[in-house]
Amino acid sequence: MIEKLIAKIQETKAPVVVGLDPMLAYIPEQVKAAAFAEFGETLEGAAEAVWQFNRAIVDEVYDLIPAVKPQIAMYEQFGIPGLQAFKRTVDYCHEKGLVVIGDVKRGDIGSTSAAYATAHLGSVQVGSAQLVPFGEDFATVNPYLGSDGVKPFLEVCKSEDKGIFVLVKTSNPSSGEFQDRLVDGKPLYELVGEKVAEWAETCMNGQYSEVGAVVGATYPEMGKVLRKVMPKSFILVPGYGAQGGKAADLVHYFNEDGLGAIVNSSRGIIAAYRQEKYAAFGPEHFAQASRAAVGDMIADINQALENR
Amino acid sequence: MIEKLIAKIQETKAPVVVGLDPMLAYIPEQVKAAAFAEFGETLEGAAEAVWQFNRAIVDEVYDLIPAVKPQIAMYEQFGIPGLQAFKRTVDYCHEKGLVVIGDVKRGDIGSTSAAYATAHLGSVQVGSAQLVPFGEDFATVNPYLGSDGVKPFLEVCKSEDKGIFVLVKTSNPSSGEFQDRLVDGKPLYELVGEKVAEWAETCMNGQYSEVGAVVGATYPEMGKVLRKVMPKSFILVPGYGAQGGKAADLVHYFNEDGLGAIVNSSRGIIAAYRQEKYAAFGPEHFAQASRAAVGDMIADINQALENR
Predict the structure, then answer these.
(1) DSSP assignment, residue B238?
(2) Given a cut of 80, is residue A24 above it in pLDDT?
(3) What's the whole-number mean pLDDT along residues A240-264?
(4) Closest approach of chain B CAs to the CA of A112, in angstroms?
(5) Looking at residues B179-195, what average pLDDT do you find?
(6) Chain A residue numbers touching B127 (CB-CB < 8 A)
(7) Given A4, A8, A96, A105, which residue is catalytic?
(8) pLDDT in the model for residue B289
(9) Fewest CB atoms within 10 A around its CB: which of A14, A203, A304, B141?
(10) A87, B79: Cβ pair inside 8 Å?
């Protein structure tokens, strides 16, 4: 799957991913009103608003970008109907030719991790049928439980041509609480990075591995180090824009070949119409505001890459 | 919620929890055949089999135990229908008066962790309605992202009278890969344990805190240390039975008051009919086999506690 992602990045000239993390507060009133009119102020109504919001944005941006990253928590908070909207979004993005990174941050022990890998990247056998539960292309994985928790994902990556991004250094302010602690003189995130590099070697697909890493845009110095620790891994970079990460800081997340990283923006794109810069679009043209914001983000990152 | 859990433990004299982690391989043929006859070899058929299996076991064991712990991965692998079976199981266990620990191992950054906390322990506002997405009583939480990822859960614990168990030392063989690494001479799990103790102080409810910890039965020496590091936290102990943890090893997970730990068994209970010891029940009486296994487990742990 990493080869498909690379091909899409080269085709769009856009090493970016749009985070589909719809909070109800981001969704314009007219979208919510229509959904609530049909389904009431219910979980179904909220899920319908989320789905209509996503669809409008995807319709406006799919030709500009290689991939989307729906954050499942934002759907899970609306229970079963929310997860139906998640699945619908995954399927719709596939119809539009997008690579779908399920930001699920799952991770557990052996057979349980295998069930998560099946849920998000694989297929499950029921009697004689082989069925696809959610069917994303990539999933994010939490490494705290060690290799036992990651290996079942590697198996599915190999058998189903899928990929993962393992959390190494997250973008949030308190990520250092455990991730930065020194073990034998090295921060824990670097040890995790070294493990990612090992896992990556077992899952190569062309020049890059199906095993990537998550490294926050908000820690560029660490990104620079981790780029070298995990040479075969794509880095999925959250934290650009709304969280404070700047394009100039992100060039070190890329390899010399111009590949090796994909930068995510969520709020900055899907709620662009709420920013002063894109306010002229108004809530009624929220999706066009997202398109403009995607264009600006791509230009910003490509400019930084040219200037490095 | 910890007070309710304690009251139920005292009432049943059983510091145990039954893990409802249904793999299709554990479900007797007649249950699967009936479900597939109605819904086909589909995700719906698998979910129906899971639900009928769970219900039969819960009907047989609910009066013996304080709590159940459904592992959501085992449901998520059957997609939306699987998660419907999860929700149905949670609701049914509540009807039967059981405390429900959602083994979801979620954890993310700020607003995303807040969405997970809402999904599993809280309620979500949709227009003027306040709705419950999944409604478990406790959830397990992954600490790799630090306090940012845990605090939103603490907020919901306080406002909704719920609780969490934070992963400290997991029961799997490779848990030591990161968790045992020494930071300033102390293993990482101990640092996480110290953080749990801090978080616990902010969420007291009677003698104990709403913030508990997960410490595997397979590492009794570490359990002994962690018991002292987190005096106000209940320890949820996976790994008894099928994974190799023995009752005699577990006494140190309890405090002097006989409280402070709750021991989980999943496979050992729900698939008891497949063990030689309970084979006489046969697949047709699988739920009664589970009842016998629960009785034996309670006796085993109480015996060990008396002998300490």
Answers:
(1) -
(2) yes
(3) 90
(4) 6
(5) 95
(6) 32, 36, 41, 45
(7) A105
(8) 98
(9) A304
(10) yes
Mean predicted confidence (pLDDT) in A64-73 = 98
Chain B residues inside the 8 Å CB shell of A266: none
Catalytic residue among B105, B151, B186, B224: B105
Which tokens hold the place of A224? 């620079």
Characterize the bridge pairing of strands B235-237 and B211-215: parallel
Which of B178, B192, B196 is the best mutation test for A, with the most CBs of A within 10 A? Answer: B178
Predicted local confidence at residue B187, as pLDDT: 96
Q: What is the DSSP letter of A185?
A: T
Q: What is the ipTM of this complex?
A: 0.97
- Residue B176 and residue A42: Cβ atoms within 8 Å? no
Residues A170-210 pLDDT 10s: 999 999 999 999 998 999 999 999 999 999 999 999 999 99
Q: Do B247 and B300 touch, CB atoms closer than 8 A? A: yes
Average pLDDT over residues A47-62: 98
**pTM summary value:** 0.97
Give yes or no: B151 in active site. no
Pair B264, B240: CB distance under 8 Å: yes
- E strands, chain B, are 16-20, 67-70, 99-106, 124-126, 129-131, 138-141, 163-169, 182-183, 186-187, 204-205, 208-209, 211-215, 235-237, 261-265
CB within 8 Å: B46 and A124: yes
Mean pLDDT of B201-216: 97
pLDDT tens per residue across span B129-173:
999 999 999 999 999 999 999 999 999 999 999 999 999 999 999
Distances (CA, A) of B199 to B143, B147, B233, B275: 12, 9, 10, 41
Handedness of CA B238, B242, B243, B247 (dihedral sign): positive
Chain B CB contacts of A113 below 8 Å = 73
Q: Does B55 have pLDDT greater than 80?
A: yes
Contact A175 B143 (CB under 8 A): no
Round to whole Å and give the CA distance between B86 and B75. Answer: 6
Residue B286 pLDDT > 90, yes or no?
yes
Quick check: A83 and B80 CB within 8 A? yes
Selected residue of B29, B41, B112, B151 to mutate for chain A interface (largest A Cβ count, 10 A) = B112
Q: What phi and psi, each to the nearest 5 degrees, are found at residue B214?
A: -100, 125
The CATH architecture assigned to A2-307 reads Alpha-Beta Barrel (3.20)
Structural contact between residues B166 and B199, judged by C-beta atoms closer than 8 angstroms: yes
For A192-196, which contacts have Cβ atoms below 8 Å and span 24 or more sequence positions?
A192/A143, A192/A166, A192/A167, A192/A168, A192/B178, A193/A168, A193/A169, A193/A226, A193/A229, A193/A230, A194/A229, A195/A143, A195/A147, A195/A150, A195/A166, A195/B177, A196/A143, A196/A166, A196/A168, A196/A229, A196/A230, A196/A233
* DSSP H or E run through A100: strand A99-106
Q: What percent of chain B has pLDDT over 70?
A: 100
Q: Which residues contact B218 (CB under 8 A, 6 or more apart)?
A: B171, B172, B239, B243, B244, B245
